[in-house]
Amino acid sequence: MIQLEKGRQSCYHDKRAQDVQLSEITSNSENATVIRKLRTNDLKEKQLIIKDDDRFELNDYISINQDDDLGWLGYFIGKSETLQKLTLCCWPDRKERVDAAAFAEGIYCNQPIQRLEFYSSAAFQNVISCRNNGNLTDLSLCCNIGGEDARSLALALGGMSLKLFHLEHNSLDSDSFDTIIKALISQKQLERLHVMFNAIDRRGCETLSDLLVSWRPQNLRELVLGHNHINDEGLRCLIPGISECCNLRWLGLTGNEFVTSAGLRSLFEEAAIRNLNGLSLGHILNITEGLDHLVWGLPNFQALQYLELEDADIDDTELQTLSTGIATYLSSDLRELDLSDNPLITAGGLRSLSTLLQSESCCLEVLRLHNMDITDEKASALADALVGNTSLEKLVINEPTSSGWSAFSRLLCDTSSISNTHCSNHTLTQIHCYGYGEEVPSSVERYLEMNKYQEHVATTKILMHHPVFNMETFFQWKLKFLPVLMAWFHEAMSVLILEEVTDGEGYRIPFGYLVGEFLSECDTSKLESVDHVSQACDVLLTRKLSSVYQFVRAMPLLVVDGYCSQDLTRGSRKRKRILQQSRKMSNGRKRSCSF
User: Fold this and answer.
1) Measuring CA to CA, which of 13, 416, 514, 562 is 20 to 30 A from 529?
2) Residues 457 and 496: beta-carbon distance below 8 Å
3) Mean pLDDT over the full length of the chain
4) For residue 557, which phi and psi values (nearest 5 degrees)?
5) Alpha helices (H) in 467-531, listed in sequence order
6) Helix (H) or strand (E) holding 2
């Protein structure tokens, strides 16, 4: 581990910082560009990744090699005033230890850093012991941690005030895990604790539960223990600790394949889970045995918004049971449901989701069904299940075929009639295709984009697809309908001209641009204007005149029919009165003759 003599290297770089040429201290132009951003406090997302390969990253990164001056890199990291997140995927393996020491010193000197991520054991060993300022809130360790490293980490935790502590793929033995977990008792502000892929068994569960019981964390919101070796006994050991987390909102148990229905039942009986917002039970192969227990326990959840059941061997029958249970107990609460990687679900199972999706109280906003082999039949069944749904905004699936996309297109805009277009789905705004392949077809993407503006989307879809309005269907309202018709066209014109949307490049454009663009694609010969908004307005005026003409042309017939009907009614009433008077006179004469 490098021992720092703080300040010695910094003085050297301070004197030369104004004159240094970035091209002389970096191995390539990309690294020079990132250091220039460090220098000017212009990093994207205020993040920096240090690694030793050239694989592309969305955020700013430096790929270090032997031609990079690590001392200068560390200096500019230390001087950055905006760098908030630093990810270390490697550590220099060189003979020049002074260079590496200067690099570590720069990291040590930077105060704004709030989030540290380690994917390198060497980086962790050289930084964790000296990185100890009060601004660090998130610490993620995704590298091997040995016994000595665990003790160093436990010592460093004593001087931190973390909100997130993340351990993943650390190859921790039981003693090392105990050492780290017990040191967390000083983290009173901790909100999220993640321990994943670390083979935690019953002993680890007991240690963690004992910590939670003695700690009684008031701020812990999230406990994720995914992909460990937790079994029923370990889960039961955790329950006393979980019950002390009075503000726990998220519990993740994904990937603990040794948990059975008995362990799940014990969990669902625990009162502490009633306030959970999120529950992850994916990759638990025995979930099918415990699905009845899950449905049985659903009434105990008072605020569950996220439920993950990925890769749980759920079939059609079990999905129908689950859908009914959620519709009965959680319909007004659940916001996201993940059923991905359940290949036993067929079109019939997806169609049974209608029980939930078509419920009047359904509030589901995200449905994940990736790795489900969405065939044409499944796509059609899913689209049918979504008919009438007014809550779902995002759907994640595998890419369907062109026929499957047609089913979603009809869902979003059924052009068979004006009424069906008006009643189409105007809520779904995102369909994400999981994995590789073509993007969402432009015909479907257009409707998804339009659905982001729900207040006017029905009007817009009608204008796009119905060039002629059949006024006969509205004659039942007779003359009362004309003011309604004019008001509708007036509102539609205001929408096209005044309302604005955001296009794919982030620019604000009139809503009528989308309509005009679609109309010009369909038939450019009938539209003389080059401007899409003008095109849309011209079409709207044409349809307005046509509709009014149809209505006015039929109106005299309506008036005549109405007058004739009234005349016949008056004549019928008059004849009735004459007959009544004749009967009275006849009856009077008969009575006088009898006397």
Assistant:
1) 416
2) no
3) 81
4) -60, -40
5) 481-498, 511-522
6) none
